[in-house]
Amino acid sequence: LATGPRQDNSIFYEIRTYDIKPSKMKEFLEMVNKYIHFRTAHSELVGFWYTELGAMNKVFHIWKYDNFAHRTSVRHALANDKDWQGKFISVVLPLIEKQHNEVAYLVPWCQLGKPPKEGGVYEWVTFQMKPGGPALWGEAFRAAINAHINTGYTRLIAVFHTEYGLLNTVHVLWWNESPDHRAAGRHSAHEDARVVAAVRDSVRFLESQQNALLIPLPCSPLK
């Protein structure tokens, strides 16, 4: 049940999901925007978002690492960073109800993208696939993703598959100009025979699917 082919380097991404106490979300986001520079001094932040639809009171953030030794050194440095620990961690921990992290790789045929402009919204779609990894479902899944891209209504940012966490999970990050732009595009896709055919072929490998509409924080590199 190996993950199969992946990018031919050691770079991986840590995807962190925090459930924030509903009454504390505003305070948490303010703290992140104010003090995230202490954290980004140690490693690269890909993006930081909060959920608007699909899952309430959650934040998603993605960190890039060169390899596992790099992550170990960063975690050690953070534990000894007095500014990070004293000004941020000690304050926000009581605001968090639950934390979850995953280690994921980009699928072999995907590079990390960027939106064409700042603004807009992101959609985080999580697919739980049948065991076997990209070696099993990769071709059909790629065809479904490309069919959506070819409609021109959305912009692909990244496709990740998990290595640690819940295995056989794929996260797809999309960008749209607005929620209404996304809705219009979805209607068009549902009427596009090419998309319908590709999706029907890929769902034979699918166990479940969830999505969330994400809003980037001002401090997020992906805006």
From TrEMBL:
Residues 13-111, 122-221 form the NIPSNAP domain. InterPro entries: Dimeric_a/b-barrel, NIPSNAP, NipSnap_domain. It comes from the Eukaryota. GO terms for biological process: mitophagy. GO terms for cellular component: mitochondrion. Pfam families: NIPSNAP (PF07978). Belongs to the NipSnap family. This is NPS3A protein. It comes from Sclerurus mexicanus. The lineage of its organism: Eukaryota, Metazoa, Chordata, Craniata, Vertebrata. The gene is Nipsnap3a.
